[in-house]
Amino acid sequence: xxxxxxxxxxxxxxxxxxxxxxxxxxxxxxxxxxxxxxxxxxxxxxxxxxxxxxxxxxxxxxxxxxxxxxxxxxxxxxxxxxxxxxxxxxxxxxxxxxxxxxxxxxxxxxxxxxxxxxxxxxxxxxxxxxxxxxxxxxxxxxxxxxxxxxxxxxxxxxxxxxxxxxxxxxxxxxxxxxxxxxxxxxxxxxxxxxxxxxxxxxxxxxxxxxxxxxxxxxxxxxxx
Length: 224
What we know:
Layout: E1 3-10, E2 13-14, E3 22-23, E4 27-29, E5 34-36, E6 67-71, H1 72-82, E7 95-98, E8 110-113, E9 116-123, H2 128-134, H3 139-146, E10 151-157, E11 159-161, E12 167-171, H4 180-188, H5 205-218
């Protein structure tokens, strides 16, 4: 049965990998229920889980990156690849899941966990902080090639969730069926997939704008 193994909240630590004083990537499991709410627009550092926040406010946080989920099965894969243990929260995820292929989730798919309803919004795109945190040579390239990004989710209905809660897929889009993995490939390594994301319901507005810009540059009349 799909469920949440661990709920993880970040504690601030210095960030030597970006020109920022701190990062919240160091996520640690917490006990008991955690309140989850919509954080509002990006730019404040607010995220969905109480007690957590991001520090790169330009690129992270806000409603469409309220919660980040990563599968224990994918962490186990990386343990084998990297030859070292990876605790729940090691990739900076808020929810460590099991029993569900999070990368096969559809953009716009909705998950019920505890009393919270979440909607899959976009894939995680790796950054310099993530690379520095893992401290593996060529990590951004390695992570991208594996196509195991994990999804960000927005909060549709606030509430509480906890480790051990069942994860139920309440709904999936019927018409535009684009997976987290496909959207990740479109953004990172296979731009020929970008038309799949054009005006895709559920995708963050800033991603819609990025897709429009990139597609406009590939049109035959773009340079005429």
